[in-house]
Amino acid sequence: MKIRFLGGAREVGRSAVLVNDSLLLDYGMKTGNPPQFPVDSVDPEAVVVSHGHLDHVGAVPSLLSGDRRPPVHWTPPTRELALTLARDTLKLHGVSPSGARRGSRRHRRRGGTYDCPFTETEVKRVTQVSETHGYRETFAAAGHEVTFFDAGHIPGSAHVLVDDGETRLFYTADFHTEDQRLVSASTARPDADVVVCESTYSDVTHDPRAAIESRFVERVETTLWEGGTVVVPAFAIGRTQEMLLVCEASGIDCYVDGMGKEVTRMLREHPGFVRDADALRRAASNARFVTGRDGQRRRIAAKNAVVVTTSGMLSGGPAMTYVPEVRSNPTNAIALTGYQVEGTPGRELLETGRCEIDGRVMPVSAGVDWFDFSAHADRDGLWSLLDEYRDARVLVNHGDRCSAFAAELADDGVAAAAPAVGDEVVVEGDRGPARRDGR
Fold this sequence. Notes:
seven-stranded mixed β-sheet; Rossmann fold; alpha/beta; globular; Metallo-beta-lactamase, Chain A; 439 residues
């Protein structure tokens, strides 16, 4: 089996792995100015997508430019999330249905503008080639047998097992080994000859989720008791719903704004892919969905209230209205709930107490706290999964310290390496008996 890394190797973002020159696993984008996409041109026979986050699915529509029509395989929630992200990307970059960027000269890049790699036409084609599958339902793709297993990351997220008849590849994608309120932990460990494993938190040990929730709830309740407003920046997919669940379980009323509103509605239509559909229904009912624009947002910000809103790193979305409104009052609070990538306004706020909003650097007097509501396995979780694959070859990706983690695994007797972007690895499988139950 040939495994080629087109992105997501020794980095976080633009995940893309090509198997046997024909089967593409994920095709994401890395946000930035300009955004980054997987390297080299690729023309797969089929595409398999692990889950609906931008760094894994963001560039998939660009694979459908020209005469290319590879089928795209994913779970039902991942399909809906991918389409939501694609439409939001078009909107963000101001791309018209023709593919031209409004207000600028037309620049083509893989079917779209320089900033956006696809057009609305290619997004529509996604629906034409989409093939959805549930967990543990083996299907054929580009001459391979493929099976999804619940990865415990976000609703619809999947580990991907690929079998070419000689070698079995286990692509972990993003996963979590502890229960969250929204989804249950990853438990499937199918037999494999080679594992491509994420390593996002390979040097971090998460605090127990109950302790994190307790600190968050205490901060929110204290701020409300003192008469302040709490802005909770949260990723639209997964994190917003998790925070709504935490608020409902703790008796905290809240508003919800941004793309997270649409995602919450959509996930309620896929109850089989969440841990507790009734709890999600209650959480959605407990939240008040913001339907207006900046005028309503400013009024909410002036209230003694909690608002969960995108974006999670303060790089866009309704947070651009809420944060300037609450920043000058020390009684207010900004509760960051996810990892803040270096160079983002959220990271700047944590490190300096200031952040750039709409081109203006603003000092923030409101309280700023960070809560580690991660949906990724930590160091202990990564080791617990990889302990099941000591006889397999391990290729570490999706992290800021892939080489260091691979070296730690190697020191412990695991055949581990950390390929770079553009590298190709050839693995020969051992066709021993396979545990088809996915244990």
